Amino acid sequence: MTAETAIRPAAPVATPAMNPRTQRLLHGPMLPALLRLALPNTLVMLAQASVGLIETWWVGHLGTDALAGMALVFPGFMMMQMLSGGAMGGGIASAIARALGGGRREDADALVLHAVLINGALGLLFSALVIGFGPALYRALGGEGASLDAALAYSDVVFAGAVLVWLYNAFASVLRGTGNMLLPSLAVVLGVVLLVPLSPLLIFGLGPVPALGVAGAGWAVVITSALTAVLLGWAVCTGRSIARLRPARLRAALFGDILKVGAVASLSTFQTTLTVMLTTAVVGAAGGPDAIAGYGTGNRLEYLLIPLVFGLGAPLVALVGTNIGAGQGERALRIALLGGGLAFLLTEAIGLAAAIWPMAWLGLFGDDPRMLETGATYLRVVGPTFGFFGLGLSLYFASQGAGQLLWPLLAGGLRLLIAVGGGTAALLLTGSLAWVFAALALALVAYGTLIAGVVASGAWFRRGPVA
């Protein structure tokens, strides 16, 4: 059997009994369908990303050490978000989309239970690992003294509630896999609205509420995550979703349907986070905690692109997965490339703006000269290549929908090699952080170009490494 026949069932599956939302994914105009699904999802992803920005802004008032501590923890927290929502979440959404596209409604319902069990178990495991090994990790990344204390104060709280993040992303991914982007959007926006007053209240205290410092920012995240998980769980359990949480017999095939995409996508997420962590260590070795704070603050804008692109990526998983399940491979590929082009334009515009006006971003979080200098250098050098990151990331999500993730994984490995290996070599040869950041920029260009070239060549549909 060829790769093409493996993902293109012979019999058409669109029937009068198919849900109208699924029918629109299969037969509606591509650009309007993508934009209609992406708009609420993009807004909610921006709202979700603002959680970190709100926290960073308030924590910045506690001083540079607190800001550096947040920079040490942030890659791990973002990795958890990416794993639960983008990697395993993508596997969940892809499996449900393909089941609905293939007319397998009972399998779609059963996949919901399997998704909750997978993400729940991984959330508990993540908590244990980070709380147990966090101190050694943050020291290895350059944390020391007050910055290390701040990192641990925040990390121990926010990762104690990690399972809540994994659960609400499981429920959100179920809804997105059915093409429903609105309900996850509303739930996450409500959580952010609550976070805006809650974070400074718990950080600085007011009246009977004690000042918890940087730990208060962690408690604000835990509380809002719990609320979001309850709301999304209610939506999936009470019939607001095409695929519902029901009692079902556990089946290895359904676990495998999620994990064959989610597990490979998790490796890609580890690559992204490892790239940032190792680069943070290189920057710390060169410039100390102030430079870490500057790089972490500038790099936070790059991380902001991830939920922004996910606003397009989640609809791509649903659209591509549903069309692949229905045997419409050519339409799936056109949708993927359309989404990739939109993501490139959006993220490149942000990167160019950051390169031209870096202080407009960095000045929001502090005024330490060393922090501003390092952050501005990073944005001026790396910002103009943000479009390639957006291009590659959007096609990574599209590849999740197709169930074809080896090439995005290889592209992530290439990015890691160029960024960390090239950055370390540049530092040893020149002693300049500007050349370290040049290696990061080259890595982003290579990442986006490789994925786009392979997907556009039709690698999803032919025998080869991705089959």
From TrEMBL:
Cell location: Cell inner membrane
Chain segments annotated as coiled-coil in the UniProt record: none
InterPro entries: MATE_fam, MdtK-like, Membrane_Transporter-Flippase
Molecular-function annotations in GO: antiporter activity; xenobiotic transmembrane transporter activity
Pfam families xrefs: MatE (PF01554)
PANTHER family hit by this protein: MULTIDRUG RESISTANCE PROTEIN YPNP-RELATED
Membrane disposition: Multi-pass membrane protein
Record keywords, A-Z: Cell membrane, Membrane, Transmembrane, Transmembrane helix, Transport
Transmembrane feature ranges: 33-54, 66-99, 111-138, 150-169, 181-204, 216-237, 258-283, 303-324, 336-357, 377-398, 405-429, 435-461
Protein name: MATE family efflux transporter
Gene source species: Roseicella aquatilis
A GO cellular component entry from the record: plasma membrane
Top-level lineage group: Bacteria
